[in-house]
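Tutorial, part two.
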Amino acid sequence: MSLLMSNLKRWYLILCLPAGIIISYVCSFFPSMIERYYSTGINCIFVKFLSTVTGILSFSLAELLLICLVLVFVWKLVSLLVLFIKTRRIGEVFVARNLFNLLSFISILYLLFILVWGLNFNRITFAQMAHYNIQPASTEELTNVCNILIDRTNQLRIKVNQDELGVMIASGNRKHILNGGDAGYLEAAAIYPELGGRYGTPKGIVMSEIMSYVGLDGVYCPFTGEANVNMAVPDALLPCTVSHEMAHQRGFAREDEANYIAYLTCNLNPDIDFQYSGNLLAVINSMNMLRKYDIERYSELRKSYSNGVQKDLEDYSIFVQKHEGLAGKMSNDLNDLYLKSNRQNDGVYSYNRMVDLLIAEFRSLK
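Running the prediction step on this input gives:
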């Protein structure tokens, strides 16, 4: 009992959770200050240093830490089961102590997340950086953007390699793709300095198959500064996935912006594989939005896909369907909750707001 009381004396650790929520909420009213002093200031310096240090490792430190965390959790459950078998009851002190420790761990972890990266949700938008005019678009305007993107993607598809089944394959090995994203960001930094800087190279996840069943193509770990990539993702979408996680690494937390930045940097990348992948990502998002508002125009434009593009989309669809299941649904629900908790009110559907940036870009070129 004395051990339990000793733990309860540290009740203030649980206050880290509401503290993190309050800090994030207050900071949301000062995006310009967050941008200047946090996103492009102290946090930028911290992440560059952290990702460079962890980048020395050839493996993902985040993946190793996650495995250790799972093993500790399993060990705790086994201990609970052993206690029950021996005593035929679960000790109240044991349960209370471990529940308290779990809540404390989650609270501390959340506060650290907010301080080391999470405040980037409150920086100014990329639309403001790019001076894009974000306004409601007509279905006609969306259709025109889809048409341009499809035509460009069809042309790029001709230049990439494909296997005997007609599915796109990378010109180099997959390590080449992990290392190749920097070239696009180097070009983009000349236009948007916020995208510049040297960071640790993205890392492939060893347990990519498990990651696929969870429904994740990539994940950025703010505690290690690593952009982690699911290496089971088909080659056609692997380059844009790498570029997406690199955007998070550079402090762009919003999913819609990370998608758009992936498209942008892939377009500026001299590697054709990246160019094609970025535009394919844009086609998928813009056409999904068109289907939502005008199924007839969507169906008509869908016919203009080249055979190669069609093959790649079918291949990705097979990949997704193969890994669908309860784990993926639970992961999607958790991701939705995570996004909404950081005031991305559309949740997982904020990925589709990438289309607003695409439309604004084409609008600015007129």
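DSSP finds 16 helices and five strands in the chain. In part three we will examine how such features are distributed along the chain.
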